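Entry for the shared binder. Reason: the reviewer on the internal report wants the predicted structure included alongside the sequence.
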Amino acid sequence: MHVSLVGLNHSTTPVTIREKVAISAQKLRDSLLLLRCYVTHGIILSTCNRTEVYTMSSHHAEAASIDFLNATTGVSFADLLPHIYLRENEAAFEHLFRVASGLDSMIVGEFEVLGQVRQALAVAEKARMVNLPLRYIFQSAIRTGRRVRDETGISKNAVSISSVAVDLAANILGDLGNCKVLVIGAGEASRLVVKIAKERGASPIVIASRTQERASALAATLGGIPIKLNNLVEELSTANIVVTCSGAPRWILDVRHLEEVMQKRPRLPLVIIDIAVPRDVEPAVGQIKNVFLHNIDDLTEVSGLNHQQREGEIQKAREIIAAEVSKLVTWWRAIEARPIVSDLMRNAEEIRCAQLKKTLRKLPQLSDEERNSLEAMTRSIVTKILKKPIEHLKTNADNNRGYAETVSELFQLNRKKRK
């Protein structure tokens, strides 16, 4: 039994590739159904900074997961393979725990990823792609993520992609007081942008979404002006900052739009921060005079500083993760050993019963009490003989030394199954 992880993230893969392999929330269920064609059980974790496929099978499933990514995203093997990382069993556990704890994020300690891990499990559960071990692994990761945030200061005064985007705009324009901000998108990232921009004194804040109801709801909650996407050109003509995080499948802002806008405001700078994956803004927009375009990968400098500031808390988090991974590995080895232990116990019980039956035929008539005593004694002997080997199996089933296979061969368990 193997847990395999195949993934790409912000550390290994530029946004130009990440956006191609990103699986939106709307497409996640269909992608899980496609994944079933490759493996029996699996969970897909896709965020703005990573796409990861966790699978469980009786064999190494890395190749199947890569084939799945190629099929579901249409990205060629040539583009995928240079950026992919592979993990198996304990290494996969540790990676997932780091992700859930915010250590593997571009912005160390950010909160959003824990909810994304929880959501990935929930969607996979609904698609019936989760078995008991995979569920337990993800639940352990979620529990570890909560513990890290409760017992360390890694998320204290935590920044987020959204807050870094606003900071980047402020670095370019200076004081945001009286700056007009246009936010494209109405999800959680957009909510944070609106909240932070408002705290920094930006006004007015205009919210555009593909769904008018969501834009209106966000505007009503935090204070803003909801608009329809087809009014973008008009709003862009007077905006100072645009933050886009819609995750639309195609460009929302292209060169044609922005050239039209900048003709109306040639001397007024326009800062565009595109934190969507896939990107919302055509990259060539950055070549237009007085347009300052940045995407999510341009936030790495701030994320590096955030990492340095939290180094002490990161070490505490690593210690918690190591302890939790150790607990999971112990449980995993017991699960790994369970089939062979069951076969071994069944084999021993069959031998015990057969020999006891032969012995009882040769003995004079025994009372029920005597028969029960003989039954208990033989059962106790078998249990004590197997106690140490079973403990050894549970401790070492997953360390590649072949204990399970050796036991199976010694006791001819596979042969007995075939019969």
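Summary line for the report: The first strand starts at residue 2 and ends at 9.
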